[in-house]
Every structure is written in structure tokens, then in C-alpha cells.
Design brief:
It comes from Acinetobacter shaoyimingii. It is found in: Cytoplasm. The protein has two domains: about 240 residues, 3-Layer(aba) Sandwich (QueA-like); about 80 residues, QueA-like (Thrombin, subunit H). About 20% of the residues lie in helices and about 25% in strands. It has eight helices and 17 strands. A hairpin with a 4-residue loop joins strand 5 and strand 6. Helix 7 crosses helix 8.
Amino acid sequence: MQLSDFNFDLPDELIARYPLESRSASRLLHLKANGEYEDLHFTDILDQLNAGDLLVLNDTKVMKARLKGKRATGGAIEILVERIFDQTIAHCHIKSSNSPKAGAELFIGPDEVKVTVTGRHENLFIVEFTQPILQVLDQYGQLPIPPYFNREAEEIDTVRYQTVFNDPTKIASVAAPTASLHFDEALLKKLDDKGIKKTFVTLHVGAGTFLPVRTTDIENHVMHSEWCDVSEATAQLIRDTKARGNKVIAVGTTATRAIESAAQACGGHIGAWTGDTQIFIYPGYEFCAVDRLITNFHLPESTLLMLVSALSNRDNILNAYKHAVESKYRFFSYGDAMLIDKITA
């Protein structure tokens, strides 16, 4: 299967660079299992789900992971904290005029917090901070909004690029689980009142989510690694939902990857699992746990577009995307949403 099989034309003006005034005001394109689709509003999700269905959401929180600073020589640098290992050690991306070597000292903010490069791990730098990393990020960091926004992070992103249900103790992502950004407290309460259950997984989203696929044959692509956790309580809820004939609805590709990783690790049956996942879901993949998916519209030739094409199929997805473009849906992180039903044999 070729990378070009997942290309489509997207006018730049359809990229949503700012959120709507209300989280739940987005549109919703429902793609049915038979390939038909219908135009809805996101609040119509309430009518699309049944009592006893289970929403699976990602409760990670986005770090203010982007830091600007300078080298000892005065040259500008930018650090993107990808993964924190203890209070002062992290793996990071570093942008500078010259790639820093081990031993290089970098300085953040007017107080010149020192950061020392101690080595490399694959394409990342291993760095040591002289102060607790989360404290430095809170004081000097910016939210790492997606590159296709083509702007600096603003005050509105502080609130709107986080979910309303994020767990402050799980602040470790460099990108938001954006399908969840559509849910506000009022909609969550209505879903709860209808008897639609919810549970949480954790997948800390890495910057690799924005990396392009660089192989012509997609089967040669190697996914980036992300840490995730699926508890036994969540696994049991998923098993119980399926046993009574209800649907498991993953909210976002990150929730999908988390529970499908847990299922793969447990021999094809959903169970508790914690670890690093490099699961790559593309057409031909057999889903173990997910029945339906709420997701945003994804970039051309991206692994996320391949994932949604595995749940439906490539032709259905590209036909729906063509309709979305013609109907001027808003794309990407602050854009509109889809509800995709899994094709069943």
C-alpha cells in the first residue's frame, strides 16, 4: 500500500487555526459502515449513542513543553521537551543553528536556568536541567501548538488546547488528544444522564504525531514510541460493554491506539497494560476493542488518516473527506469532527 494512496487536496483556508467560541459548536460528519455519510452538529452525538455504550477518553494533559533560550555563545535555541524521566532529566528536540554536542550548556529565561546536553537517544537529545523540569516549563514554557497553526501560542490556547477532563497529575503530552476538545461539561453531563458510560486511558502524545511518513510503501514506516496505560478497571468496562452488546467508542486516535495496544499485548483480548507502544494501525488491521471512533479530520498522507481508513476503508474515508472539503468543514486540531462506524464482515 503506497503513501500516495492517502493523499487528498486540502485548501489552506479550511485549516482551523483557532477554536470556535464554544467547544461543542463544531460540526460532525457521521460516516456509516456502509459508506454513506450525514452532516450533523457535534451535540448530535447524544442521539448517535445508546444507553450502555462506553466512551473511552484520553486523560493526559499537555505540557508547556516549548522553551526558548540561548547557547553559552549567545545563539538562539529552542527546546521541545518530549519525555520527562525524572525531575531533571528529559529527552528533547533542540533547534539551533548547529546541533549541540554532549557537554553543551544552554540557558532558559532571564534567570538563565542552565540545561546541559548529556548525550543522544536516537533522534532526541538527553538533557539535564538544574531545576525541576515541570517548574521550568510552568515558568518559561509555551504550549506546543501544532506547526500547521503557523502562529505562536496565545492565551486562548492555555484553556482550549486542553480537555476539560485532563488529569493534572498526568501532565506529559506535547499535543492534545484533539477529538476530546469538543466535549464540554454540559455535553458530558447529558451523555451521563442518558446512561452513556465513560472511562479513561492515558497516552502521552509525542511530537512524532506530527512527523510525516517518509517511506513510499507505508508498511516500511516505523511508528514513534508513546507511553500509555490501560487500567484493569477500564479493561473490565470494555469487556462488560461488549458482553451486553453495546458499543465501545474511542474518542480520538490516541485512545484507539491505547486500547488496541493493550488488546494486542494481551493476545487479542482487552486487558490491563502499561508500556511504550509503537502500534501502527493501517488498512488490513483487525480491531480488537474499538467499534466506533470520534475523531477530527487528519493531514494528508498521515498515519492518523491511515488509522481511520483501517476502521472504515480508504475509499469511504477519502469520499467523506472530499465531501468535507466541498462542504467547508474545518480541519485538524481545532476543526470539526467525524463519527466513524467500523465496517463489520
